[in-house]
Write a structure and sequence with these properties.
By secondary structure, the protein is mainly alpha-helical. Among the domains are: 8-195 and 520-531, Serine Threonine Protein Phosphatase 5, Tetratricopeptide repeat; 291-386, no CATH class. The chain contains 17 helices and 6 strands. It has helices at residues 12-15, 41-60, 84-90, 99-121, 131-156, 177-194, 210-225, 234-246, 249-252, 309-314, 319-324, 397-412, 417-432, 451-465, 474-480, 484-487, 522-527; strands spanning 274-278, 325-326, 328-329, 351-352, 362-363, 392-396. Strands 1-6 form a two-stranded antiparallel sheet. The longest helix is centred in the N-terminal third of the chain and has 26 residues, at 131-156. It is globular.
Length: 533
Amino acid sequence: MKYTLVLFAMIAGLFACSSNDDFLKEDLNGKLFPEQFYSNQDELDLANNALYQSITHFYCADYNSFVVMLYGGDDITTPYFGNVDYIQYDTYVHPAGNSHIEDGWRDAYATVNVANGIINSYHKAAETVDEQTLCEYVGQAYFARAYVYYWLVRTFNDIPYVTTVRESDKTILKTSAEAVYDSIISDLKKAEEWLPYRWTDVKSMAGFTKGAAKATLASVYLSMAGYPLNKQACYALARDKAAELINNQSDYGYRLLDNFADLWKPTPLTNDELVFGLFYNKSIQANVRAPKECRPVQFGGWEAYCPEINFFLRFPEGKRKEATFVSEFPLETGFYTDIPVIPWPEGKPMLSWENIMFKHPYYFKMWEMEGYEGENKWVPAGESDWNCSRTSPIIRYAEVLLIYAEAQAMADGAPNALAYECVNLVRNRAKVGLSNGVNPHVDDLPPGLSATAFRDSVFVERGWEFAGFEYASRWFDLVRLELVEDAAKEQPEHTFLPGRSPAEWPITNPPTRASYFSPIPEADVLLNPNLGQ
C-alpha cells in the first residue's frame, strides 16, 4: 500500500472538524460527503494517507498537546516558567480551560473522524478492490480509532464515543469508560484479524500491523485490570496476548536491541524492537520530539520538560541511564547567558545539573538527531531544530515483555520462569547491554518474589525503561495502580516510589482520585451540557 504522506488539507473537507475548538459542531458548507467517496482504490489510498497524517499530527506534531497530562507522573516536570498549562498538570490542577488539553482533544477526534469515514464506507469499493486489500484498509482504520480512544479514555474516563463522521453538538452523551474499553477491544480484534504481519513498503513492520494490534490489546487488558475498572480477570487476558508475541518471534520478528542507546538514533527509520512507530517527514509532517523541547535555554532549547530530581537520583546507573539523561553541561561559569564553544575544548570544566539555572538534569532520549550525535549534542539548537523526521516509537518490544511479566504474576499468583526472563532481559540490557540477545545475568531480580512484590518491581522497571515522554507512560501506571497520591508526597508510604523533592513546583492541593482524569474541555461543555463534568 502507498504511504506517501499527503497534506491533510487535501481531504480536510471530508473529515476535518470545524475550525473552532469544538469537534462536534457541524458545518456542512462546501463539504464532500462520504457517500460520494471511497468508491475505488485511489480514494481509499487518499483516505488511508489522511488517517496516517492525522494520527501522526495527534501524537507528535502539536508540541505537548495530547501528552500534557503526563506531567502528572513523578518522572517529568517542566522548567518552562511561561507555560502554565504544563505546570497545572505537574501540580495536579486540571482546569477545563487548559489550552493544551483542548488541542489534544480536538486532534484526537479529528483522527476518529477520519477512521470513522473509512470504517463506515470502505465497502463501497467492493466491486473494484479485492477483499483482502479492503480488509487491510479497514483494519488500519480500526486500529487507529482504537488507539486514539485508548488515550482518550485513560485521560478523560467517560467520553463521547463517536462512530460516525459527524454528530450533533447538542445531543451526544458521554459513554461509560467500561463501554468505551469494550469498543476498543472490539476494534482491536478486527485489526488483529485483518492487518498483515508486516508491510512491504516503508511502513515496514512498525506501522499498523497484526503485532501492533496484539501489543495494544495486551496493554488495554493490563489497564482494565487496574483503576478505575479493576477487572482482575483481565490480567490473564493481558498475559495471554503478550505471550502470543513472545512465543511466536519467527512470525513477528521482535527482539530487544542490544544497546538501549540505539533506540534513539535518528536512523534507521525502524528496528527490530519497534512494534508500533509513526514515521515523519520534516517537509510535510514534522515530529516535534526534537532537541529544542528538552534542552536548556543555554543550548538553544525550550526546556519544556526534564526529569524530576528524585526520579533521576533513584535511577540505576548503567547504559540506560547514560542514554536517557544529560546531567553535566559544558558551561564555563554557569551564567544563564553562557553559550559553549564548539567543540568543547578538552580539559574545560563540566558543570553538574545542580549548577545550571533550573538545577535539574535533562532528558537526552529525544535530543539526539541528525547533527547532534556524540559531542555535537552541545551544538546550540537553531531555529529550524524544533522538529525532525525521526520515527516516534509508540510501542516497543520491551513493553510487551514487561506487560507479560506483570500480568502473568498477577494472574497466576506468582511469577513463572518466563516472567523472570522477560523482566531480567530488560534489566540487564539497561546495565550493560545485550550481546546478540543473550542475557548476561548481571542484575536479575531475586527469586521467590510474591506476586505483588514482583508486580511492584516490574512497575519500577517500567518507570525507568519508559522514562520521559514515552507512550508507555509512568503517569498511566501510577493511575492504574492507584499510586498518584503517594507519589506526590515527599516521603511516600511505598518505598519503591522516589518521592517528590521540595525543589519541584509546590503542590498546593495534593492529588486525590479526582486528579486521575482530566475534565472535558469547557468549550465543548458549553455547547453541550451533556458533557458536563
